[in-house]
Amino acid sequence: MTTAARLDAVITYEPTAEQLTHVVDQLLSLRGHAMVLDNSESGPARERVRLACQSAGIPVVADGTNHGTAYGLNRALARAVDAGLPWLHYLDQDSVLLSGYVEALADLDTVDAHVGAVGARFESSPHETVSAFPPGGVALALSPATFLIASGTAFRTEALLDCDGFDEGMFLDVVDHEICLALRSRGWGLTVDSRRSMGHEIGSGGVTTVRNILVTRHPLWRRRQMWRNSVVLVGRYFRVAPRDCVAHLAVRVVETTSGSWRYRSVGYLSAAIRGIGDAIRSRGPRRGRSSHLQG
């Protein structure tokens, strides 16, 4: 089997021993250039990551600070660029690659040059196929997409450089939505390869509500960050993609109100209000990879 020239990167945060074994095994199974960016803050977790990756010959980038997903992805992008690799393929520490995934990655080099990112079809626990992605197909099954989930997506490094990488101001949530809109605003296409299927847990205690919107339990600091980043996203890209921005905000409203009712928590609503306030106070330019390099 041929292997597309790419960097396979995983960002870890306080992984359990079981998760870490899984991460290492999957990276080795991909047979590409691999790296782990460890955002763990505790000494024991950092040491677990270091020892596991060292024994497998996988490079680790870590300094004991949680810099967030966007920063980690920009570090991975820099590594891919330095190595002359045209693709950056990202996975979360809890993503599970299903049958046929590795083989389908080998076809990345045949993707049209205007495509900036190729996502995967994914299934959330307990085995629910997320409706935003098409069902599995046959042969080369690329379908146009408006948004992609970061985990399972292969990003063309040329396209990421054209967008100045990921927005580190987003830190964690909505990073993938933001880069999708950034890519689209510069003329890059997004697709889903439905042959690449993966399992992925989204939050915990997920329930499906209105129009198949998945509501999950997250800590309130993340709910606050979700709202902050969603409002920033809409303000930044409304003129570029007004319908998508309205739809994104509508989903955020529905899953917040539904979550507040489902989990009997007024904290969902107060976190939303605080997040909106954060967005208003944090107006400023996008913090891409160049801001990190200059810093």
Give the helices and strands, then pairings:
Blueprint lengths: L5 E7 L4 H14 L2 E6 L4 H14 L3 E2 L7 H14 L4 E6 L3 E2 L3 H5 L9 E10 L3 E2 L12 E3 L9 E3 H6 L12 H11 L3 E11 L4 E5 L5 E4 L2 H18 L4 H21 L4 H15 L7 H6 L1
Parallel strand pairs: 1-2, 1-4, 2-3, 6-10
Antiparallel strand pairs: 4-9, 5-10, 6-7, 6-9, 8-10, 11-12
Helix pairs in contact: 1-2, 7-8, 7-9, 8-9
Verbal overview:
- The chain has 295 residues and is an alpha/beta fold.
- 42% of the residues lie in helices and 21% in strands.
- It is built from 10 helices and 12 strands.
- Strands 1, 2, 3, 4, 5, 6, 7, 8, 9 and 10 form a 10-stranded mixed β-sheet that branches. The protein has a two-stranded antiparallel sheet with strand order 11-12.
- α2 links the parallel β2 and β3.
- It is globular.
- The chain starts with 5 loop residues before the first strand and ends with a helix.
